[in-house]
Amino acid sequence: MFYALHTASLGMQAQQMNIDNIAHNLSNVNTTGFKKNRVEFQDLLYDMIRQPVTDENGQAAPTGLYLGLGVRTAATQTMFNAGSLTSTNNPYDVAIVGDGFFKIEVPGQEEPLYTKDGSFKVDSAGTLVTTDGYRVIGVDEIAENATDFTIASDGTVTYKTPDSDDPVEAGRIELARFINPAGLEHVGRNLYRLTAASGEATDWDPEADGSISLEQNYLEASNVQVVDEMVNMILAQRAYETNSKIIQTSDEMLGIVNGLRR
User: Fold this and answer.
1) What is the DSSP string of 200-223?
2) Which residue among 42, 90, 150, 189 is least packed, with the fewest CB closer than 10 Å?
3) Does the predicted model carry a pTM greater than 0.85?
4) Is 23 helix (H, G, I), strand (E, B) or coil?
């Protein structure tokens, strides 16, 4: 019963983290480019009471006797499956079709940061930037009187000026991809940082890799499914209640033992 108290408390802690993660997913259901997280659990060490051994007569025991000691939170897995594309009719909005990331220049960071959020703007200096004012790598300054701003499927940025009908090319939005995007570090503000677990960033070459393209006037919505998260929340709540009931039952059983008289 002492095992049950400890094991059930670990189960309650695990489900509390599960609920915290679900709350984070649901709170970002309208966050552009957000990727939901999934909590992964592992069972703990077992108390081996009896091994499945062979006795002196060659008779083998088919099973042993083990007592599990609970659960632990092993990891949170970021699910990078694509969200739906939402039309915005804003020429500075762009969505990635595929597994690429925008490269963002952040002051104070030696290496670029990466994002799936393509809700870009043009600042007072004509620089294409994120909502926080961080520069989108690969795009040159845009003229103040620019019109017909266009982002091609390969990321090439062009615009026109009133004094010419010929389009002016302003560079190409640079994208990167990773062998293990789930290993990227979350730094907030819809940004990720490269880590040893994610592997090195590989620059996207649109001529060699047709699996990625850009869609102007669209944004990638969050991949959180509200119905799925609600179901997961109910399951986590029921598991939490069940573990609390185990603690209550174990306490009652210990009370019976303590109340025994010779």
Assistant:
1) --EE--TTT-TT-EEEETEEEPP-
2) 42
3) yes
4) helix
pLDDT digits (tens, 9 = 90+) for 155-165: 999 999 988 88
Backbone phi, psi, residue 217, to 5°: 70, 15
Q: Which residues are within 8 A (CB) of 262 and not within 5 positions of it... i.e. 6 or more apart?
A: none
For residue 43, give both structure tokens.
């069972």
Instruction: Name residue, tokens 């009133």.
Output: 162
DSSP state of 179: S
Could you report the per-residue pLDDT of 231-240, keeping only the tens digit for each?
999 999 999 9
Question: In whole angstroms, what is the distance from residue 34 CA to residue 190 CA?
Answer: 7
Asked if 39 contacts 2 with a C-beta cutoff of 8 angstroms, the reply is no
Helix axes 226-258, 2-27, angle to 10 degrees: 160
Q: What is the DSSP string of 58-113?
A: SPBPS--EEEE--EEEEEEEE--PPPPEEE---TTBEEEESS-EEEEE-TT-SS-E
Strand partners, 150: 158
